[in-house]
Amino acid sequence: MSGVWIVVAVVGVATIAFKAAGPVVIGRRELPPRVQSLVELLAPVMLIALVVTQTLGGDQEIEIDARVAGVGAAVVALAFRAHIIVAMAIAALVTALLRLAV
Question: What is the pTM of this model?
């Protein structure tokens, strides 16, 4: 298992544990606004990290292939306010078409 996968796994487990422990530790109390804003950023940051490692990560090197174009197409779709499911479908379609063409 490469170092990137270990980091992703550890961060994922820590995020799940952090979110699961929250209701137990604070009960019905409100989080301070600064802490709440950090908690709200955890899921998007984890998703971005996963997309980047899956798109560019190879065996200890960066790989540029059809996945990069697919992610780029999804970013463009999201910039035009497409729904996340539509953006994912566009990414998959662009990636598949480029792999078919090459």
Answer: 0.57
**Residue bearing tokens 């197409």:** 73
Q: Phi then psi for 57, rounded to 5 degrees?
A: -80, 130
pLDDT tens profile 30-73: 778 898 888 788 878 888 888 888 888 767 778 888 999 999 99
Instruction: Give the whole-angstrom CA distance, residue 68 versus residue 79.
Output: 16
Dump the DSSP string for 49-63: HHHHHHHHB-SSSB-
SS (H, E, C) the chain: CCHHHHHHHHHHHHHHHHHHHHHHHHCCCCCCHHHHHHHHHHHHHHHHHHHHHHHHECCCCECCCHHHHHHHHHHHHHHCCCCHHHHHHHHHHHHHHHHHHC
